[in-house]
Amino acid sequence: MQKGLFITFEGVDGCGKTTQIELLAEYLSLQGKETLITREPGARGLGEKLREILLNYPGEVSPNCESFLFLADRAQHIDCIIKPALEAGKIVLCDRHTDSTLAYQGYGRGIELEKINYLNEIAVSGLKPDLTIVFDIDVETSQNRVGKNKDRMEASGIEFFNRVRNGYLDIAQKNASRVKVIDASDRIENIHRKVVELYCRL
Ligand code: TMP
User: Which residue, among 163, 183, 177, has the nearest Cα to 106 in the 3D structure?
Assistant: First the structure.
């Protein structure tokens, strides 16, 4: 049975979510809360191997193969890392989760959303985030932040990332009680304040 809290952080590459996860973890540790910062893909072990393939494989990767690799990483992550941490009462702060597959492989690559939803359900075995924060930013700014040295996913192009961004906004609209959107073009400390406000409402 889940005792901890599960919070996921989402957005296009370069949206600044990793900085915000670290700031929230600092805030929670000052409150004496036990947290686990983790990520998808590639939290550790087998996941790191899958991440290496997903981000750096130089040849063709079909959208279905890409989806299954992200989902395989998720299944391992949920079973071996997230569930045990939640059962131990920790607050799990997860950099990307199910909504990344919906936004990137669904809205971005064009795989049917229903299929992704179904496969996500299998991968997480019934576990859902208590809160998901989407850091929304325009694609040009986020691409500039990523810089010139792009990995396989980051090199997917402006049109792809516009579909991903709009996908996230659509996901937020359809899941309004779980998914909250924060303007990620704001100052870091203002964004942090909004993240803490959302946490405090849980
Ligand atoms: P990161 O750089 O934020 O760690 O994310 C790795 C990349 O993988 C990022 O470009 C988003 C992408 N991704 C997907 O396309 N689908 C997924 O399900 C996940 C978890 C990540």
Answer: 163
